[in-house]
Amino acid sequence: MKLLIVEDETAIRQQLIDFFSAQKFVLDSAADGIEGSYYATEFDYDLAIIDIGLPGIDGIEVIKRLRAANRKYPVLVLTARGHWQDKVNGLEAGADDYLVKPFHSEELRARVNALIRRSAGHSTPQLRFGPIAIDTSSKRVSLNDTEVELTSFEYNTLEYLVLHAGEAISKTVLTEHLYNQDYERDSNVIEVFIGRLRKKLDPDGSLSPIRTVRGLGYRFALTVNETLPS
What we know:
Elements: E1 2-6, H1 10-22, E2 26-30, H2 33-42, E3 47-51, H3 59-68, E4 75-80, H4 84-93, E5 97-101, H5 105-119, E6 126-129, E7 132-135, E8 140-143, E9 146-148, H6 152-163, H7 171-178, H8 189-201, E10 210-213, E11 217-220
Parallel strand pairs: 1-2, 1-3, 3-4, 4-5
Antiparallel strand pairs: 6-7, 7-8, 8-9, 10-11
Helix pairs in contact: 2-3, 3-4, 6-8
């Protein structure tokens, strides 16, 4: 998943970068509202974390600009303790949730995962597609109630496709949302991951959960609670 972090306090910004990088998120970051507004309006993300008190332009204005640019990804506002009006202003500007500083990293992670999941239309982290079950909280996948061992890259690829089920996702979009800028973008590694996922999730070829859309990319073809035909 691809996150935007807009935070002017160096220590907090680095804390966020280190924390989410360790969880294999792709990150862009900015230290002021002007640069943050540029990223927020020009690029697409799975979620943005935006501080309210930013130099240049404040976080409220950044949120207003990204919504005016028709960017629909979720926004989590960071705000100082006790500034209740900041929370209200942030939500009214178009934010989806807020977190008060200082915060616990695990609470932040849970809120981020919940926002991303809900933006895809899922109210629970436990998703089932016939014999395939995916827990987006624990990052575990099972087939017929037996856990499937996936690498972090394989899981991230699957999760992105699942959270965009029914959509044709190109290899370029997958790369941009799942892998860092220094990733070897000219390789065919996405095809390799897709091939591995198909073998692990559909060993007998009866389900076809990930389908190739000629000229467009890949599509996760199942829907939540879909069951196999008898």
